UniProtKB/TrEMBL annotation:
PANTHER family: 40S RIBOSOMAL PROTEIN S21. One of its GO terms (biological process) is ribosomal small subunit biogenesis. Belongs to the eukaryotic ribosomal protein eS21 family. Keywords: Ribonucleoprotein, Ribosomal protein. This is 40S ribosomal protein S21. InterPro entries: Ribosomal_eS21 (IPR001931), Ribosomal_eS21_CS (IPR018279), Ribosomal_eS21_sf (IPR038579). Gene3D superfamilies: 3.30.1230.20. GO terms for cellular component: cytosolic ribosome; ribonucleoprotein complex.
Length: 62
């Protein structure tokens, strides 16, 4: 939900699994979120990162 200024005002915004596009529920205690830094051509971190969220279902598959 957004207010008049366009800001998100929801108390809880669920994440989606990057592999299956499933919603990661609040009770999914097997889920993880991994941030991988982006690097330039010299191998130095640029300050940006790519976030991957994996649900417990994917982790249980192995």
């Amino acid at each position: 939900m957004e207010n008049d200024k366009g800001e998100l005002v929801d108390l809880y915004v669920p994440r989606k699994c990057s592999a299956t596009n499933r919603i990661i529920k609040a009770k999914d205690h097997g889920s993880v979120q991994i941030s991988i830094a982006k690097v330039d051509e010299n191998g130095r971190a640029t300050g940006e990162n790519q976030v991957y969220a994996l649900c417990g279902f994917i982790r249980a598959m192995g």
